[in-house]
Design a protein that fits this description.
3 helices
């Protein structure tokens, strides 16, 4: 028996996981832009860690909780960017 609520694309997220994923991804975008423009004295590694966590949560919300909100799908972009950025740094450090 599944207890998840399947949402529609044009609605806001219906699950807590969907809201957490969207919130962390938005936090990552703000921190990444602030750190790259030297606006925030915040560690870059922590910023990327937040982005990777957001990407994993977004994928979990879409796959396991069947979250179909436009906000969660939109936050998939920065989440995947953070995952690919971290993988690139691990595979080819400079």
């Amino acid at each position: 028996m599944r207890t998840t609520q399947r949402g529609k694309f044009l609605e806001l997220p219906r699950t807590k996981l969907g809201w957490w994923a969207a919130g962390l991804a938005l936090l990552f975008v703000v921190l990444f832009l602030g750190v790259s423009n030297d606006l925030f004295p915040f560690p870059g590694i922590l910023t990327i860690a937040i982005g990777v966590a957001a990407g994993i949560l977004v994928l979990a919300a879409i796959y396991w909780k069947q979250e179909r909100s436009w906000l969660v799908w939109l936050m998939l972009v920065p989440g995947l960017f953070a995952i690919l950025f971290a993988a690139g740094e691990i595979l080819n450090p400079h």
